[in-house]
Amino acid sequence: MSWHKYYEAHLTTADEAVKNIKSGNRVVLGHACGEPGALVEAMVNNAENYQDVEIVHMFSLAACAYCRPEMKGHFRHNALFVCGPTREAVNAARGDYTPSFFFQVPELFRTTMPVDVAMVTLTPPNEEGMMSLGTSADYDYAAIKEAKIVIAQINRQMPFTYGNLIPVEDVDFFVEHDAPIPELPAAKIGEIERAIGEHCASLIQDGDTLQLGIGAIPDAVLMFLKDKKDLGLHSEMLSDGVVDLANAGIINNTRKTLNPGKFVANFMMGSKRLYDFADHNEDVLIMPVDYVNHPMIIGQHDRLVSINSCVQVDLMGQVGSEMIGTTQISGIGGQVDFVRGAALSKGGISIIAMPSTVKGKVSKIVPQLDFGAAVTTSRSDVDYIVTEYGIAHLKGQTLRERAKRLIAIAHPAFREDLMQEYRKRFGAED
Ligand code: COA
Predict the structure, then answer these.
(1) What is the Å distance from ligand 1's center to 134 Cα?
(2) Atom 10, ligand 1: which residue's CA is nearest?
């Protein structure tokens, strides 16, 4: 059968397609901008016909209606990363959180978390009958390969990206529904973020390959790279800030030791400008997370510089990035993948950058992480910590020296309290 005939024969409506979800199924939703809005809406409208359907995903820009209290019994969310719309359900015990390194999520789908139904967004097929995952290859690619049933929303507004093509035969039901790709509002960059960005940029050299996380701090770092040359990008996420540096030829990927000439990421989130930049751009590869985030792939880049953020750092250099006390506010994501990958990279470094306080009121450098909070990046993995007050290089340093360096970049209002803790642990300062 030609791919055209296969496609026509498997075309249906959203309402019909979601009838293939059965009570007790595990349903994986496309990640972030790849979430198939029309399919999720049809599934939620059909809630009365389901019991105990497990909904698995990471970041979402949508409303996540299946997390609402009235959906209890019909749906239960299992978060691999907690985000705004899912936070309340997970912390009210109507949902669950499964800790995992991002690069291992596809392996979970192959082993302990078998997938019954994958619901994803794809572009229409090209002449060869291949569709693109567009903004999100990450775990979506593995979900398609592993699921018993694949339902795809075919959205003509999804950019066609390379590194993730799917043949029509991998999909069981096609639902054509065009919709704008969700956009991420630009982060607010203030004086503190600018100072952090400038410190981080001072650690970046011409020719380095960068990984940048989400939010104001990575965006601020990009603002201070305008006088650098020949930078490369191998990142979990591709964001708007990269487009300006690409157009200016500052990020040109020429000196990358793996995938030279290519921007490599496993998902992208930003504005339409970013999506237009990536559309049919052979220099952009949006690839599965078990490749992009694998520490041994990351480590094949010389001078890989990884920049991420956190909630708290204790005086030993233990980094908490996902919980406030016992409340899960986000997830591990790719932080540890890149911290470890950077450690394997020749000349590579990893930076955890954060404001020194929460709105000037609470220090983010603390004697101990808040009671109940998980350690995300361990003290043996941590490398650089950056705040608006400077840079603390912790790798290879004693606990005493780490504490001293961290106190030096804490907000001045909290340094004396931290010094009291220092003296308790290590005696008088020498
Ligand atoms: N104590 C109490 N509250 C704290 C806190 C602390 N030490 N640190 C942060 N918060 C609060 C903030 O006030 C904010 O609350 P609000 O939403 O009510 O304003 C909330 O936690 C989020 O903090 P914020 O600093 O605004 O978040 P961010 O957008 O800069 O993200 C992380 C910071 C740590 C949550 C985010 O970087 C993350 O999830 N990291 C782990 C995953 C990762 O690194 N992935 C790799 C790259 S994609």
Answers:
(1) 27
(2) 311
> Which tens digits make up the pLDDT trace of 342-386?
999 999 999 999 999 999 999 999 999 999 999 999 999 999 999
Angle at 224 between CA 303 and CA 299, to 5 degrees: 15
Residue 323 CA to ligand 1 centre (angstroms): 9
* Residues contacting 117, CB < 8 A, separation 6+: 20, 21, 25, 26, 27, 28, 147, 148, 149, 150, 151
Give a yes or no: residue 333 inside a domain.
yes
> What positions carry a catalytic annotation?
236
Please tell me whether residues 167 and 236 are part of one structural domain.
no
Can you give the pTM of this predicted structure? 0.97
Which atom of ligand 1 lies nearest, measured to the CA of 215? 29
Q: What is the CATH number of the domain that holds 218?
A: 3.40.1080.20
Give the pLDDT band of residue 430 (cuts 50, 70, 90).
Answer: low
Say if 186 falls within a structural domain.
no
- Do 164 and 210 fall within a single domain? no
Measured in angstroms, how far is the CA atom of residue 104 from the centroid of ligand 1?
A: 23
**Owning domain of residue 355:** 191-426
Tell me, yes or no, whether 229 and 84 share the same domain: no
- Claim to verify: residue 289 and residue 412 sit in the same structural domain: yes
CA gap 188, 59 in Å, rounded: 20
- Number of domains observed in the structure of the chain: 2
Contact 161, 134 (CB under 8 A): yes
- For 173, the enclosing helix (H) or strand (E) is strand 173-176
In sequence order, the 6+-apart residues with CB closer than 8 A to the CB of 11 are: 174, 175, 176
Give every CB contact of residue 255 below 8 A, 6+ residues apart in sequence. Answer: 207, 209, 230, 232
Rounded to whole angstroms, the Cα distance separating 1 from 11 reads 15
Which of 410, 308, 290 shows the shortest CA–CA distance to 349? 308
Look up the CATH number of the domain holding residue 168: 3.40.1080.10
Nearest CA to ligand 1 atom 37: 309
